[in-house]
Amino acid sequence: MNEIASSGQLRMSLVRWILVCVPAITALGSLIDIIAQAGPANRWFAALVPQGALLPAWAFTSIWIILYAMIGVGLAMVICARGAPRRTSAIALFLVGFIALCTWKVMFFGQHQVSSALVLMGFVLGLAAAASIMFARIRVGAAMLMLPYLAWLCFAATFNFQIDARYPDAETLAVPAASANIGGGQEANQY
Q: In 55-71, which positions are buried (b, 16+ CB within 10 angstroms) versus exposed (e)?
């Protein structure tokens, strides 16, 4: 049975892989975001960043979900390119880079290891760039879907660098206590 698949069969294979990759990448990435308390809602991070200097938490979360979906589609496109040279290497690079990104989020937001996280982010960027180049050799569209992800990683690396430079003791910064506003929109009394 050496028949070549029809274009319809190939399209359905891609759709099936998209239906696996996009939810898997989005769910895993979002779970890590929740575990690490990634983003502006993190009280430690909010103490380092001036009020209004970064996107609101909902926008930060939305951007990551869109990026997870885009890179999930790109991964599915590469997975469906059976017989493509270096396909397995491209998938492996992508997965190692994604795991490194998840580790960076835990290290930066969860453990407050700013300097170590900066080094790891350099590794994440290198892996993501290498995966994008390999994706381009397999499916140009898959590489194009990686470009916004690479841009956002550059933003994260720059921000990580700025925090590391501005707050060399960020690892030891005490997390401010959560405040409860009991007065129905008015400031709670300070005792």
A: eeeeebbeebeebbbbb
- Residue 124 is encoded by which pair of tokens? 């994440």
Task: Give me the amino acid identity at 62.
Answer: S
Q: What is the spatial distance between Cα 47 and Cα 27, in angstroms, rounded to a whole number? A: 28
Q: pLDDT for 139-151, tens place per residue?
A: 999 999 999 999 9
Q: Can you tell me the distance from the alpha carbon of 147 to that of 153, in angstroms, rounded to the nearest whole number?
A: 10
pTM: 0.83
Token pair of 183 as six digits: 């007065």
Tokens of 176: 């401010």
Q: What distance in Å separates the CA atoms of residue 162 and residue 157, rounded to the nearest whole number?
A: 9
> Tokens 């499916």 appear where?
139
Q: Domain-by-domain residue ranges, the chain?
A: 8-168
Which residue, chain included where needed, has tokens 């380092």? 48
For the chain, the distance separating the N- and C-terminal CA atoms, rounded to the nearest angstrom, is 81
Q: C-alpha distances in angstroms, 132 versus 110, 157, 170, 189? A: 28, 18, 32, 54
Q: Which amino acid is at 118?
A: L
**For 8-168, which CATH superfamily applies?**
TspO/MBR protein (1.20.1260.100)
Asked whether the beta carbons of 145 and 71 are under 8 A apart, the reply is: yes
